[in-house]
Amino acid sequence: MVELGILEPCRASKWASLAFIIPKKDGCVPQITDLCLLNNAIIQKQYPLPIITDMLDRISGYKFFTKLDISMQYYTFELNEPSQELCLIVTPLGKYKYKCLPMGLNCAPDFAQQVMEEVLRDVNDTGVYLEENKSILLYLGAPHAASRQSPPSVGSQWFHR
User: Fold this and answer.
1) Which of 3, 59, 63, 151 is the most buried (most CB within 10 A)?
2) CA 153, CA 155: separation in Å to the nearest integer?
3) How far apart are CA 134 and CA 59, in angstroms?
């Protein structure tokens, strides 16, 4: 994750969360970060997440659907410096800070949903639904010209101490 630019070694912070690895039956070895203390301490900006049954009702009659795997989506959102100082993890290999939005942060789904809706707002007949733990984008209908924007940055507007 350091090589990918997601984590950066650091010395100290007022905040620290434990990170550990739990091997899965399929051979995958995901890193788990316990962000419970940080999640309890931050004030989350709420964004309305869609209800899948409402979305399915709205798309009744559509013939074509696509879903895209965006499982690394959170790591595309850079954290500002004050937010990086809050997102420090402790591992057996040392201390690291997240440079990107970590999975498990309670504001992450709301932020990701808002960004994806903004990215697709000019595309007709689309809807965004991010499945928990899988981060899947459900993309509906035929795309038209989409607006191009620079990648968003996660900052203090999304979580505060």
Assistant:
1) 59
2) 6
3) 22
In sequence order, what are the beta bridge partners of 67?
138
- The closest of 16, 15, 17, 21 to 1, measured between CA atoms, is 21
d(CA 120, CA 56): 18
Written in H, E and C, the secondary structure of the chain is CCCCCCEEECCCCCCCEEEEECCCCCCCCCEEEECHHHHHHCEECCCCCCCHHHHHHHCCCCCCEEEEECCCHHHHCEECHHHHHHCEEEECCEEEEECECCCCCCCHHHHHHHHHHHHCCCCCCCCCCECCCCCEEEEECCCCCCCCCCCCEECCCCEEC
CA-to-CA separations, 73 to 54, 76, 115, 131, 133, in angstroms, rounded: 24, 5, 11, 12, 11
**Cα–Cα distance for residue pair 144/137, rounded to 1 Å:** 17
Distance CA 5, CA 37 (A): 24
93-136 residue pLDDT tens: 899 999 999 988 988 888 888 888 888 888 777 778 887 655 46
**19 neighbors 1 (Cβ within 8 angstroms):** no
